[in-house]
Amino acid sequence: MNSGRRHMLRVKELGCVICRNLGLGATPADAHHCFDTSDKDDFLVVPLCTAHHTGPAGFHGMGERAFNRTYKTSERRLLGQTYRELAA
Question: Which residues have a Cβ under 8 Å from the Cβ of 11 and sit 6 or more positions away?
């Protein structure tokens, strides 16, 4: 397994960052690639559950602007939080 895949597994093990920020606990998560580009980097991922990733209340469901406004965050902030939690 390459280092990018190992990193994504570690990120997913944290549980959904939005659920945790809302006090809902560590729900199972997918790895959401940040900064929508065609050149996805497996080290630029944050953990999001299905609901907060692709569901109607999720990043891809409501779009980046509405997601950021609803959860008072940004991909950059969530990525920083993810890195801090991995380092702890």
Answer: 29, 31, 45, 46, 47, 82, 86
